[in-house]
Design a protein that fits this description.
heterodimer; A: Arc Repressor Mutant, subunit A; 42% helix; B: alpha+beta
Amino acid sequence: MRLLIVEDEADLLQSLAMATRDEGYAVDTASDGEEGLHKALESPYDCIVLDVMLPRLDGLGLLRRLRVAKATPVLLLTARDATGDRVQGLDSGADDYLVKPFDLGELLARLRAVIRRHNGQASSSLVIGEYDLSLPSRTLSKGGVRIPLTAREYSLLEYLALRRGSVVSRTELYEHLFDENDDSLSNLLDVHVSKLRRKLGTDLIETRRGMGYAIAG
Amino acid sequence: MILRSLRWQLQVWHAALLVVVLAGFGVTACQLQRASRLREIDRELDSAALEVLRFVHDRDPARGRPELPPPRRPRLGSAGIYFAAWARDGSEIERSPEAPGTLRHPGQAGLSPDRRPRHVTHGVHRESWFRTPRGDVVVVGRSMASDLEGFRHFALGLAAAGLAVLVAALATGAALAGRAMRPLERIGESARRIAAGAHSERITTTGLPEELASLAGLLNEGFDQIEDTLARQRRFTADASHELRTPVSVLLTQTQATLAHPRSEAEYRATLEACQRAADRMRRLVESMLVLARLDSGEEPIRREPADLNAVAAEAIESVLPLARAHGIPLGFHPAPGPVEATVDEVQVGQVLLNLLGNAIAYNRAGGSVEVTTGRSETGLFVRVSDTGIGIAPDHLPRLFDRFYRVDGSRANPRGHAGLGLAISSKILQHHGGRITVESEPGKGSVFTAWFPVTAPREEPSREDRRGVSG
């Protein structure tokens, strides 16, 4: 999952990036509204964490201009907690909002929920064949026994699982699993897929030649 | 309690006045009625007396007409009238059987000196006394018991009617007083609701009598001021808590994110530094708010002494020289010739100049400069700080000195201030009897001027000054 965090307070931006990277997200950052809009239009993000008060272009302005082109989920961070401000935020096209100061755990939970809902998934755990995928704990288990996965392997599996039944191209996978500063070679994907297959069996992730990968729906 | 009510006072006065008028009217009516009834009785007695007088005249033996039958005795008993007659020598000539036993010859003193009848009231009896030309005395009288009874009925009827009028008038009066009071009550209700929290409600002045409308207008003005003050207080509190949200967010996310996993020493250090920055920002915010609150309440001591604005400006410039060098901004100083004497609190004015200079450096552009000028003009003494920076758009200028106002929507301004610096500066100048003005052109730079009165201001003495005077 790839995130964009737009926040002008450097220390807040840094800690949010650190916390979300720890959770296995690929994270890009922007420290003003114009940079944020540019990146949001440029790259396919799974969610954008957007501060309302930003220099150059404020969060709501960014959101309105983004919505003309894209439906990327947006989680607003606002220092204003008046109902009118929240209504305005949601009406401008935000998917959820959090009032500062917030609890990091809540932010991460809301991020998961926004991304899950955006992919049409109501429940926070998925059953894939004989495996259980738990989104909150980022774990995969089989018959109650946890299967150890690396962060990258989990992210790959989660991305495919949330789009069960549809084919995900290698480019899309690459764009959503690596952030802008990550210059890993795209064939690293194949390495992660084959490692996953070794752990979970070859049938789970199908290769559609010339199109990409898919988990059967 | 009830007598303090305007409505009841009106009612009591109204009632008292009515009672006096009605009583006067009633008493007069009774007296007139009594007098007229007495006159009627007297006329009745006088006409009845004629018969008695004729009888007395006719039976006089001295008349010498013995051939005639003796005169018929008057029959007056059926009309309830009694009579008696006495001869000149006082011997009783005649007395009707109905005459009360107490009826006696009154003696010469009890009679009128001429021939006119004398009307007398004896207890419940009314009598008419005559003296004939011969000297005989005749009295005709009757009981007034039935008349008195009628008179009592008349008086009672009058009293009952008066009472009815009084009640009706009081009821009408109460209704009128109530109607006159209703606008006052309406004003009172509005005021109560406003006091209870409906701060934006106002007393409706349309339809109010002129006197009350002007009162309501005055009250409304007062409510406007109170609401304005409350709104400003509320905004300040909201802004202040709003300003604290970001540093608190930094503290929370930094510590939570860092503590979630084991970190390297460098990472822990970075987190602590971020927390320190957030805490420092909170400290500055709290300090600024405290300064403003003290300036607002007049608790911030202002020690005004004669000072040379050139010296104050030079000291401020010296303090910001390291900052200016770090930004690569040259500072120019153009003092007015000779000392620019003003009566100021040097520390506070120094703060104002430091704030203006800090802004001028922080919002400047590469290769720009800052110039400080002091001088005197007709409007006062001034210290001017001009920069060649980014400038301020005209639509921001009117709110520039508002608390927490920022030209840029962002909260991370280059100076890490919460938007209170100019508000504090403006307030300090205000306390000195001066003001701060700004001219700016986007892209060219801004000119901030701190104005001081030529003489020490008297209109706004600070608490410190008053303390100084009282010892």
